[in-house]
Amino acid sequence: MSGLRKAVVYGALALVVLGLVVTGVMVRRAGGPLFPVAELAAVMTLDEDGTAPAPAAVAPAAMPTSQKVTTVALRPGDNFVGALAREGVALRVGNDIAAALRANGAKLRRMKPRDTLEITWSLDGAPQRVAYDASPWLGFAAIARDDGGWRVERAETRPDVRAVVVAGEVKRSLFHAVEEAGEAPQLAIDLVEVFQSDFDFTADSKAGDRFRLLVEKRYAGETFVDYGRVLGAQYVSDGRVLTGVAFETAGTKEGFYDLAGRSLKKSFLKSPLEFTRITSGFTYARPHPILGGTRPHLAIDYGAPVGTPVRAVADATVVSAGWAGGNGIQVRLRHRSGYETMYNHLSRAAVRAGQKVSQREVIGYVGSTGLSTGPHLDYRVSRNGVFVNPLSEKFLPGEPIGGAERARFNEQVRTVVKRLETEAPF
């Protein structure tokens, strides 16, 4: 092609492209999408012979991101709709979302401070999706429909339950030993509940005690969430081995039993407090810290902070609850078989006279009322009107497993104890 011909062709093409770009014309490639002529010009060249080759393929422009995601956490006193409103969701829209979620099983009233909501927005500022995880096992997502309503997706995850052996040695406290074993404090509470009728962890636990238990751990994927059932446990103190194996008898809830098949749930707990320390024992001759002289102290004193919950040690009827002179605020309970218990120097009572209470129910809170030198619980037990030492009293034993269930129970014991002994020998 001559130089003159090339110049003419190039000039004509430039004028055409320039005109199309200025007017915003879009060109459709055969069988393809519309695309700007400016893009066509950018890729169009001429071959040496002056002919125009087929345009190079040009991908359509990427769609701009149409969503953003924000997270809002509930504050104390917040509710679902209020949290959304604080993030900019109109109250009417928030109420519609809440109604759709409730209709699909979401318990929004159970939401707690620090629970979070994830909101997905369109570029024009409208919420498109609101997600809420009620638990690691259950999640909800409300998604905007074209008609202005909301559809709800519900996602359920089955917990991955793994039975594992956990073991440790008490050096400073049971809580510390459980933490040293890499576990959460809740596991110490679970262990105490197994043996709380046979062993007073406040008075009797000491350095060198050892424990091992077979417990269910629940996972969401590979993330540990919480503990399930304790299947079996053993605690060794001063050469004494306590064993509890979980077993469900026909027609009853699951409970813990010793190796002989006797229930570990006795009629009385060993202590009215979960964790504390004994500051004064049962004696007939103790120097009185306020009145002076030597007087009987027919109680066990537990030092504990004001407000510590006090539990009923057994099922009972409340005889009295209120001020009782030097005993301060007092609760008296009447139990079966001639037993009564007294709880003195409380900061307040949580029951009233004539009320029925169950074992472990909170009946009051530790205080320092009456003749008291500091916060503590004065706990007393009487049998047929005579005070007895709560730490040495032999309370009524638990019910044994019947003969019909014995073979199944023995098999459960063998399985649990063998695994404990194999994986965590003492």
| Overall outline | globular
Oligomeric category: single chain
Proportion in β-strands: 35-45%
The CATH superfamily label of the largest domain reads Glucose Permease (Domain IIA)
Give a short account of the largest sheet: 10 strands, antiparallel
Question: What is the CA–CA distance across the termini?
Answer: 98 Å
Q: Uncertain regions: pLDDT < 50 for 5+ in a row?
A: 4-65, 280-295
Percent helix: 10-25%
Structural class: alpha+beta
CATH architectural grouping of the largest domain: Distorted Sandwich
> What is the CATH level 1 assignment of the largest domain?
Mainly Beta
Q: Please give the radius of gyration in angstroms.
A: 37 Å
List the domain count as a whole number.
Answer: 4
Mean pLDDT: 82
Q: State the total count of DSSP E strands.
A: 24
CATH-derived topology of the largest domain = Glucose Permease (Domain IIA)
Number of helices: 7
Description:
This protein has 426 residues and is an alpha+beta fold. The chain has four domains: 1-62, no CATH class; 67-156, Nuclear Transport Factor 2, Chain: A; 161-257, Nuclear Transport Factor 2, Chain: A (Roll), CATH 3.10.450.350; 277-388, Glucose Permease (Domain IIA) (Distorted Sandwich). The protein has seven helices and 24 strands. Strands 13, 16, 17, 18, 19, 20, 21, 22, 23 and 24 form a ten-stranded antiparallel beta sheet that branches. It has a five-stranded antiparallel beta sheet with strand order 3-4-5-6-7, with helices on one face. Helix 1 (3-23) runs antiparallel to helix 2 and helix 3 runs antiparallel to helix 4 (91-103). The N and C termini lie far apart (98 Å).
